[in-house]
């Protein structure tokens, strides 16, 4: 029964009732680090503010009333104007034939990943992925309780001869993977582009072992001068590929617009699982208006700016780390995958560097390979060329202080 | 081993590998129904297109470069300008004292609901909710495998005398609910406003039984002339209330911007669970810019338009259904909860009406009360006054054809 006066009590603490097995954030976020080499941020100078503003005004004036309805007048797959742009863009850049019913707009490609995982995975499932990989995918697969089987990557992408052995070995044990996940074009974190021959080999293996393929092409429009082979989705003749992409890397990550291309046998499920009453419409409207006129030219200019930043990064690394740092110069993208000598442990390096305002991704968050702890990922799109240069100088000093390498830098020996 | 030529095969069908226990959407969406009385759509005439366009241009010109970074320069809790606006708005409208660290911007209030559920619920948990309720919450709780215990609602909101009995009965059986969920201000679907006395009673009971409270005030800014009591979050002295709200009902649902107010003992967990790399930033920027200048005047005008539409709806119902339709005139909001006489089954009525372009929410999707199948929810914000009038005329004809009621309408007997 109700007892008056009982409301004088100790404050409630949600810690005591939380069921989710996660660690809470310890404090509110305050600011980005000074030397920020993490996160898929983009180049602020490349944001085409004037044309974006104009595009936004035009589409709002024309269709602003439609904001009164969930999903505008376009239904749960997202703004029809942006899906129409994507049909052309996917054909031009990735050789994909699709129509607007094959496309679902999502709140960033992360929502696409979550929806596909929700549809296709359950605890205990086995998935096959590239050995070095997007940290957000590895953490999700772990969270879902999946068994992660890895295949090494080289400059030609996933080593499909090893994929064949992996699938055969799994098959011999009666295990059919839930999917093969791949980032074939500008692989994260190595930056490699899977060759056409390997793409075809991967698809043939997927058919042979009856496995679906999950293709993530978030970075694929950032190929600079190299040839971009057709997407797996384009090459597939068996309707087993689900393809995702994003506008985060080409236009702006803060907009949170990604997409899925899938045939209806999967799309129907993704729509049932997408219970968010639609993704943000204004951002889709803006992108449709802007991209229809400016995408091609904008991406060309962006890629040129990114290439300059990578050049600044590799110059600074060569100067500060000398032969201590190994990397393969990527043909595009926003990150560099670097290997340091023993005894460097990049998890410890990341902690020490963070204390001095330098943020890096330690290799173990981005790779399951045995020497992951000697790797780090450096994102170069967001910091200015000066910041890149200073940041790498600082990182080399910290690394030398913590691990005694690189001993040589700036053409002279470092002092402890 | 790889076998050349094996790629000639039957097309892959994702139906065969989907793990999620959901039914797929059967076909792509094509268009809204002609007489659309479902969904939380808003009044298109009330969308302030000119001022929204201007606000968007100004904020993009000033801060557009920040779109290059995830979450702009504001961190994972969302655009600081909008959180600052909310601090003032929540104080003015709901008497809530909070600061920007207590606020998390989400992709619609549905993401807020999902995050809170993910933090606080696990399969088998008991939750206490109002008997008639938001369908999206009931379906989520069922999906999560929770036991739903209901408390009836009248014109003063949740009947807290019955809540007391419910909590005592649960306690006697050793059951502590994971939370009490309430929509106290413009309850969905009844439109009622919980009285101040009941709010205090609810909070005292929550303290006594050590239960957290989940307050959903999505519709609360749509109170027309009635007094709006302070939010539960404002009245609570024990830090046990988590509060959510939305801009969908006041500005535009297609924007997908909602929010959570919570103290850090919960907020830290919500941030850990929000793995989407931020909600859409442009919509947050636009809302901050627009609302800071126009929110109050806009909501006043919107409420006047909504009140006119409700008047049109009740006029049409009175004319077409006469005494067959029972409802309580709500003091605000966008929906009317209507009870029809036996033998009407609103699930069947909804199916018959849909075939003729009239969409309604059948009661069983919005209520667990025993006579739910005689109820329906009619959303009146989106259709024009003419469409409301025609749609209700049509609905009465269909209802008479299917169930023989209402026999009287337009002041004369209907013909079968």
Are there runs of chain A of 5+ residues with pLDDT below 50, and where?
Answer: 1-7
Strand order of the largest sheet of chain A: 2-10-9-8-7-3-4
Output the structural class of chain A.
Answer: alpha/beta
- Which oligomeric state applies? homodimer
Looking at the structure, the CATH topology of the largest domain in chain A is Aspartate Aminotransferase, domain 2
Largest interface: A-B, 117 and 117 residues
DSSP summary: helix tally of chain A: 11
CATH hierarchy: architecture of the largest domain in chain A:
3-Layer(aba) Sandwich
Short description:
Two copies of one chain form a homodimer. By secondary structure, chain A is α/β, with parallel strands linked by helices.
Describe this entry's structure for a reader.
The structure is a homodimer of 416-residue chains. Chain A has helices at 49-63, 80-94, 108-120, 135-143, 160-172, 196-208, 232-235, 264-273, 281-321, 346-354, 385-403; strands at residues 35-36, 103-106, 126-130, 147-151, 153-154, 157-158, 179-182, 213-216, 241-246, 258-261, 326-327, 335-339, 358-359, 361-362, 375-379, 408-409, 412-413. With 416 residues, chain A is an alpha/beta fold. The first copy, chain A, is globular and about 65 Å long. Residues 1-7 of chain A have low confidence and may be disordered.
